[in-house]
Give the backbone structure.
Amino acid sequence: MSDIVIYHNPRCGTSRNVLGLILNTGADPQVVEYLDHPPTREKLTELIAAMGIPVRDLLRRKGTPYDELNLDDPKWTDEELVEHMVRTPILINRPIVVTPLGTRLCRPSELVLDILPAPQRGVFFKEDGELLIDADGERVTKTA
């Protein structure tokens, strides 16, 4: 079994970019399409703790019933918010990546580079055409 897990939505460009960066290291990650196979409450709570982020930071607003459910209301406890995400997985922001070096919500996609145990093997362009990794496997820095 792979030592890298990605909670992935194949319809999400950021998620596809992150998966591409993982594959560019030569890794064979475990891909969990979380909309079809949502994490349990226990697993989601474990992931949130490993990321060290507030529960609210994992909630996705765009394209979800976030507003309809009034999840901005401070009345919701962390446990209730986790329950909403378990019942309605589209509320979980993505992609979440777990590696031996850490667990992270990888938005923007470049954040995955900090937790990948192996280096990039070659050039990588994001879906929007942005060059992220050069032919030597080095991260390209943007110039202003």
In short: The mean pLDDT is 95. The chain has three helices and six strands. Strands lie at 5-8, 30-33, 96-99, 102-105, 124-125, 131-133.
